[in-house]
Automatic annotation (TrEMBL):
Coiled coil: none annotated. The chain crosses the membrane at residues 20-40, 66-86, 98-121, 142-158, 170-190, 239-259, 271-293, 305-329, 366-391, 411-430. This is Fenitrothion hydrolase. Keywords: Membrane, Transmembrane, Transmembrane helix.
Length: 431
């Protein structure tokens, strides 16, 4: 089975673990009090970007759309072909690495650098679009993003709980089932399904809110302040569930590597024990965020200032940079090392003895990244993610609360952010 977690442990830290935790927590707290002192009005709620006319014409050109769609279809075909017909040994089949590294981890830099590009290349959208209908069924009321949450939960369970999640045939069954279900739903409900039901597209679109590239109100691409783009995140209960699921699952990934966890679950059946652990980790993170959000100035908030999702929905966008920071911290070294394997194995994707890329016999280079650099990226990603989360939450609070109530109203959210920071560093570095 592939080691589906970051590489590196406590020994990688250039400073003692307790000092890293205290310093990171202090950085988050100091940033909060600095914002409370000098940032009293919202700055990201209605900020227009700089239109990129030339880039918009290129991206929206029919030829570009066709190329992106063909690239998406080719990627899906290669993934399914290698998973179904390639080598049965996970270490000799590129499909698990393509799914868990190139796609799942690769969504992060792709969305941050290129903005909302995933939907343009999404092969499931393309396949469903081949079935032309005059009308589609209306999406059920209150569905929000819950289908995407359910699909993501299944994927994360496969990655973090199921012992044979990297088996090529298991990857094949999951990818095929996921594709069939989403294409069928897309045929019934139309393109709007993928915006709320396709877990990978919803995940990519959520991350793309933090990209400097985005679509303006007129549909044109624009260069914008990433935090202003983040402020446009929909205030939906389902999105709260999605981001808490991401944070909780990443926390469990680190927890499950602790020797304490191994000792506690050593005599138990793996799947039930790890399933309960995953659920518990997600539940704790969700409860902590909901408690912090619902007690953040609940008595001082202006009437009608938040939507149906309430205060959790109003502050959910602040979890996006935190989720990215957690993901980078956990998967950076994994992506840098195991990601090479996806290229090396692509020389013979179907296990036929080919050497299409001339890389047969080449091994992963583990020497190009030092442990100190890995630890620095891990800690830096978590701290930066939480600082950006604090900035985003404060800007939203400045829009919701009066100035004299601004600092006091945010204390519960600050406590949650500091807890997330300290826990994230402890889980990443001590596993």
């Amino acid at each position: 089975m592939l080691p589906l977690h970051g590489i590196g442990g406590r020994g990688d830290l250039p400073v003692p673990l307790w000092l890293a935790i205290y310093s990171a927590g202090a950085a988050v707290a100091v940033s909060f009090f600095a914002l409370a002192a000098f940032w009293s009005r919202p700055r990201f709620e209605s900020v227009a970007g700089r239109p990129l006319e030339f880039l918009t014409r290129i991206v929206d050109h029919p030829a570009t759309r066709v190329v992106l769609k063909l690239a998406g279809l080719a990627a899906l075909a290669l993934l399914l072909g290698a998973a179904w017909f390639g080598n049965l040994e996970p270490s000799l089949n590129p499909a698990p690495t393509w799914l868990y590294v190139w796609i799942w981890v690769g969504i992060i830099p792709l969305s941050l650098l290129c903005g909302p590009i995933w939907r343009l290349a999404n092969p499931l959208r393309t396949i469903a679009g081949l079935v032309r209908r005059t009308s589609y069924r209306r999406l059920p009321d209150g569905i929000a993003y819950w289908p995407a949450v359910a699909g993501l939960a299944g994927f994360l369970w496969l990655e973090l709980v199921y012992p044979d999640g990297s088996d090529p045939r298991v990857v094949a069954i999951f990818a095929t089932t996921y594709a069939v279900l989403n294409v069928a739903a897309g045929i019934v409900y139309g393109p709007s399904w993928f915006a709320i039901g396709d877990s990978f597209e919803v995940y990519a679109e959520t991350l793309a809110r933090l990209s400097p590239l985005g679509r303006g109100a007129d549909g044109r691409l624009e260069l914008r302040n990433p935090l202003a783009g983040l402020a446009t995140t929909p205030q939906q209960p389902g999105l709260v569930g999605l981001l808490c699921l991401l944070l909780g699952s990443t926390a469990f990934d680190g927890l499950s590597r602790w020797s304490v966890w191994t000792r506690l679950t050593g005599g138990l059946d793996h799947i039930p024990a790890y399933t309960v652990g995953l659920i518990a980790a997600v539940a704790i993170v969700t409860a902590l965020f909901l408690l912090a959000a619902r007690t953040t100035g609940a008595a001082q908030i202006r009437p009608g200032a938040v939507g149906a999702a309430g205060l959790p929905g109003a502050f959910v966008h602040s979890l996006v940079p935190i989720a990215i920071g957690y993901a980078v911290a956990h998967y950076f070294s994994f992506a840098m090392f195991q990601g090479q394997e996806g290229w090396l194995l692509a020389t013979d994707p179907f296990g036929r003895g080919w050497d299409l890329l001339g890389t047969s016999g080449t091994r992963i280079d583990y020497a190009f990244l030092g442990t100190g650099l890995i630890a620095g990226v891990q800690i830096g990603a978590i701290v930066l993610g939480h600082v950006l989360g604090v900035v985003s939450a404060h800007d939203r609070a400045a829009d919701l609360f009066r100035r004299r109530q601004l600092r006091r109203a945010q204390y519960p959210m600050l406590a949650a952010m500091v807890a997330f920071t300290a826990g994230g560093i402890a889980l990443v570095t001590a596993s």
